[in-house]
Amino acid sequence: MTDTPAPFRWGILGVARINRALVGPLASNGHQLLAIASRSLARARTYADAQGIPRAYGSYEELLADPDIDAVYIPLPHSMHVEWAEKAAEAKKHVLVEKPISLDGAGVRTLQSAARTHDVVITEAFMYRHHPLVAKVRELAHDGTIGRLQGVRGTFSFVLDRPADTRLDPEFGGGSLWDVGCYPVSFARTVVGQRPVAVQAAANWSPGTIDLSFFGQIQFPDDIVAHVHSSFESPFKTEMEVIGSEGRLLIKRPFKPETVETIEVMTPTETYLVTVEGPALYQGEVDDVRESARSGRAPLVTLDDSLDNVDTLTALLKGARTGNTVELP
User: Fold this and answer.
1) Residue 4's pLDDT band (cuts 50, 70, 90)
2) Does the pLDDT at position 73 exceed 70?
3) Which domains does the chain have, with CATH numbers?
4) Tens of pLDDT along 198-224?
5) How far apart are CA 85 and CA 91, in angstroms?
6) Dist CA 123 CA 299 (whole Å)
7) Secondary structure letter of residue 325 according to DSSP
8) Predicted structure pTM score
9) Closest residue by Cα to residue 191 from 251, 123, 116
10) Which candidate among 109, 147, 154, 307 keeps its CA 20 to 30 Å from the CA of 123?
11) Catalytic (active-site) positions
12) CB 136 within 8 A of CB 274
């Protein structure tokens, strides 16, 4: 008879809207959601009572000092991710931090150092990466099904109509590219499997100097090109298309795949669907942190991967601001 492993115990820093999607996964499949923290104790207690979370803290520091917590989920505004992920690592907590993990490469390198120094897992919450759909798309892109891989096209847009939203505030790392454009950039990089070499971009800027809509071109080795679009001004749409010399792949729900998802394969002679089954959304990233923490293996989304993604995003923003081609080292 084998012993049942102890629950992997989580805390959440902040009462962000995205928490609604994570509360279930953090409290199931061998996980326990033990605590929530807010800068207001009353708000934390109200949230804890509503969600059945045993402990509430009136500061993030108090939660990080709780010796019973194994890992924390950080859904704070973009500009606060590095600070609190580093503090969590210093408290010997494993970390699942929302995308974008940092607003520059220096921040990712800070977290790489923190993860090594304190022997903890730090990984970026690109939940879609944990669905087998992504691996299947990459396989079909490189196995000759659509010929030679030539390019990738992706979009993520929605209308953001809440004026006080931090995603519209440059102080908090606002902008459509950081918030949702990071998804098609990440997906394209994952499918191509190589580091970009150069980018060009253009954007529609708000009076507060954040990009409301973004259009980018990413050049990879072997003459592969990706076109990415993100927007806070356009109706909701998510889509990825992978283009080859003899066909293409269409993925209609690339960033929030269902447990059963499809890839449309189009060639000159036929069009058909490939079906892929996977875990419930968000469960995969939560399980990955636990398994990485307990086994010592690297998480699926490594900090090296995150660094390449952040470098690409910052290059795209520079390209849009200057109108110049930006080369990546």
Assistant:
1) confident
2) yes
3) 8-126 (3.40.50.720), 128-283+310-327 (3.30.360.10)
4) 999 999 999 878 999 999 999 999 999
5) 10
6) 7
7) -
8) 0.95
9) 251
10) 154
11) 99
12) yes
